[in-house]
Amino acid sequence: MRVRFVAMGALVLFFSSCSWYHYNNPSVKKGILASKINGMAIMAPPSPFRTNPMPVLKQIGINWISIQPFAFFYKDQPDIQYSGYQWWGERPEGLIKTIELARKENLSILLKPQLWAYNQWVGDLAFEKEEDWVIFEDNYRNYILPMVKLADSLGVELFSVGTEMKRFALQRPEFWRALIEEIRTIYTGKLVYAANWDNYHRITFWDALDYIGVDAYFPLTPQKRPTVNALKEAWMPTVDSLHAFYKAWGRPVLFTEFGYMSLEACAYKAWLLEQMQEQAVLSEQAQANALQALLETFGEKSWWAGGFQWKWYVDLPSVLTPVQAARDYTPQGKKAMKVLEDLYKK
Questions:
Q1: For a pLDDT cut of 70, what percent of the chain falls above it?
Q2: Mean pLDDT across the chain
Q3: Residue 130, class by beta-carbon neighbours within 10 Å (0-12 exposed, 13-18 middle, 19+ buried)?
Q4: H/E segment holding residue 43
Q5: DSSP character string of 48-111
Q6: Helices then strands (H, E): number in the chain?
Q7: pTM for the model
Q8: Which contacts of 148-153 are long-range, i.e. CB under 8 A and separated by 24 or more positions?
Q9: Which residues form a coiled coil (predicted)?
Q10: Which of 173, 192, 255, 272 has a CA between 20 and 30 Å from the CA of residue 216?
Q11: pLDDT (tens digit, 9 = 90+) per residue, 304-339?
């Protein structure tokens, strides 16, 4: 008799646990993002395409891609390097081929040039001397404007004038307004600036652009494997802030980047988690839950234009080892891919 009661108790506990799990991790709201920008950030390959990635992306339900041709700078130096260091996919011939392949699958394009240094976040880059600012601004124009001309010649729908350049954008807004005005004389598509999540509200030139661009790495919860519902609840203050910002500026909000590593606590402070990737605990479910919560939370908002997930590797084996890929932001071959497909496809 005792065994029987223990068995019955175990069954009750099992079904209660299942009920709790499904309540807090509801089924994906299929197709709610069909009218949004369902974007994926494509990492440029080091050499010409061995396989075409666009049909796979199309199959998932991706309708936009972003392309990031990186240029390089040295810490606290005004020089910008965009020649001789780039992978094939970041050079003009690679950009043209990538756009050509995307067009065959009817994918729209965001061209998003970015600066990178191995020892400094670009958002911290600033100068004490005016002459250094002038040199840097000239170098930045010389990097950006050829990209603008290329984008216009290829009919690229959206162009990012800058990414996460926090101190530059806050300290030199007059430069950005002049640059945007100059770009408008060359380029007929839409324009965005990609602000980091912690300073989008301090940018003062949104009225000159078509979208409020946010790299949406908002820290939500330190929980290791939060449920979808817990994550949605954690999003609410940010939803309210972004909605108010949209109403103040009259521009739709676009997540120029969003994404999560497939690790426990991936929905908290991603910039810190990146530094301990190798020691962190793997969790595809944590990544899938975080993506589902973000996309379902914002997918129902008319003022949210959509976003670009960070990131997809065109030639994954040539860039990351299997161990690295398993921990990375990419959804390739993970539970997150099914979540994306369910949400994006009509």
A1: 93
A2: 93
A3: exposed
A4: strand 37-43
A5: S-SS--HHHHHHHT--EEEE--EEEE-TT---EE-SSSS-GGGSHHHHHHHHHHHHHTT-EEEE
A6: 12, 11
A7: 0.92
A8: 148/183, 148/186, 148/187, 149/186, 149/187, 150/92, 150/95, 150/96, 150/111, 151/109, 151/111, 151/187, 151/189, 152/186, 152/187, 152/188, 152/189
A9: none
A10: 173
A11: 999 999 999 998 988 999 999 999 999 999 999 999
Asked if residue 318 lies in contact with residue 46, where contact means CB atoms within 8 angstroms, the answer is yes
**DSSP category for residue 41:** E
For residue 179, give the amino acid letter.
Answer: L
Angstrom distance (rounded) from CA 259 to CA 340: 12
CA atoms within 13 A on the CB side of 25: 17
How many C-beta atoms lie closer than 10 Å to residue 81's C-beta? 16
Give the whole-angstrom CA distance, residue 142 versus residue 144: 6
Give the total residue count for the chain: 346
- Average pLDDT on 191-208 reads 98
pLDDT digit string (tens) for 8-28? 554 544 444 444 445 567 778
